[in-house]
Amino acid sequence: MQLTTAHLIVNPCDDEEDNMAMLCCHSDKGEMFMLTRYPDEDEVELTWDYEPSTLDGLKITLSDTTLRVELAAGDADALGGKDHLDITHGTRPEDMAEVEETLQNILKGTGTYVRA
Question: Origin, by domain of life (predicted)?
Fold first, then answer.
């Protein structure tokens, strides 16, 4: 499954939302993808097209132009039956450190983060 977005919207630690880490993006077709996690929880919430699902193991691979989200086989219903999502993004190079920090906060102890 694929999605194209102008940029990734991130917040590594939202103090107005109990220090929640959040990554979000919207496609030009109106699709929405969001990952969130509170620091005191062991699960990650994935929202795809406004439908939330709770996961406790996923793999994220980030490159300068692509974010690949891979789910465990039992969690494929979170992406409409697909086990992965490739997001092509145009995030500015100077914003990538914040994207990385956010993903590390979301996945710490519950998932795998890879920088490609």
Answer: Bacteria
